[in-house]
Amino acid sequence: MQSILAQPLTIMTYNRDLVERKTNLKNGTETLRYYRKITNEQRQKIIQYERDGRMGTYIRRDQDDIYFSEGDVERFSLDTIGYHPIPFREGNFTMVSNYLLDFWGYFLKPTGVHLYTLLRRHCYNKDYCYVSTSTLATKMGIKSRDTVKTHLDLLESYGFIFQFLVKNEKNMDEAPITKVRNHIPMLTAELIQQLPTALRKDHDRLVHELSEISQATDLIKPFVNVEQVYESFVTKGEIREPNHLAKETELQQVKLDHLASRMDETDRKILDMLAERLLGESWDNHVIDTFVKPLILHYDRDRRTGVSAINIYCSNSVIHQFVTTTLRTRIIHYLTQYYGQLMVKDVNFILVH
Fold this sequence. Notes:
By secondary structure, the protein is α+β, with helices and mostly antiparallel strands. The chain is built from 12 helices and 9 strands. The chain has 2 domains: 33-185 and 224-240, Winged helix-like DNA-binding domain superfamily/Winged helix DNA-binding domain (Arc Repressor Mutant, subunit A, Orthogonal Bundle), CATH 1.10.10; 243-351, no CATH class. Helices cover 48% and strands 21% of the residues. The strands form 2 sheets. Strands 3-5-4-1-2-6 form a 6-stranded antiparallel β-sheet. Helix 3 crosses helix 5 (145-157), helix 4 (133-140) packs across helix 5 (145-157) and helix 10 packs across helix 12 (317-339). It is elongated, with a radius of gyration of 29 Å.
């Protein structure tokens, strides 16, 4: 009899241990790491391509992984963004707000609305889900996962979702954690002005009805900077570069800081002169700010002969490639014009590794 009573006692203890065991956001017990990718402006490459017989270039920027604690991911809420006075109720089914269909649909497009609805359907009683892109594509009848990713980006830009990439204990990527807002926000004043006339009139009528119900006089709010909210949250994360890249970046920065510290007033005047002359050639401010102003310039003049050598240091390969292939001739021209051809012996363009 004693052995029979002991068995359920053991089972109860085992079940309690299962309940008390910590789970991750995907209801598993494995340790997961949550991260997003951010562009590293210091690691860029100019990629050349040919299309229809014409050569073109574009800049490919490398990305770093920025990691967040599980608590930060869980606490992050999209419903703090914007104003949402639209009545909301939800049961064991996915409710679709008429406001989403009638007005946000103009900006999110049918695919975006469908995608948001599917993501809400997978949230159950949470404000996040972890459904894969391929599953979403299958359920939406879309062959291209790139189409799904494009509309995920669209939803994120309007503050409807926010994605965290996920790595497991084996450092393998899993389906991302997608935070999904519960409440549909009211369009801002700027977005309302972008609606077609018919939709704008319908929206005005709705606002009038809501104002009478709630006795509120300020239902329409100004522009909400969603990107600013995201950037503020991202500051909580921790950037982790691969060890060898982190060491290389640190060493390179030490070299750049040392070279910059050696620039004197004459060096800065020469660099300002180059920026001014190139800007006068119709190069736009973006080119000057991106490729000229970051340069480090050392003007070394031999006191005995009066002949000068000028070393121009570039902080990354993109700047070095653009300067040496596109701006080199013009830079040398302005330097020799400024000092006289006999006074400038060498102009060296040096990539700092």
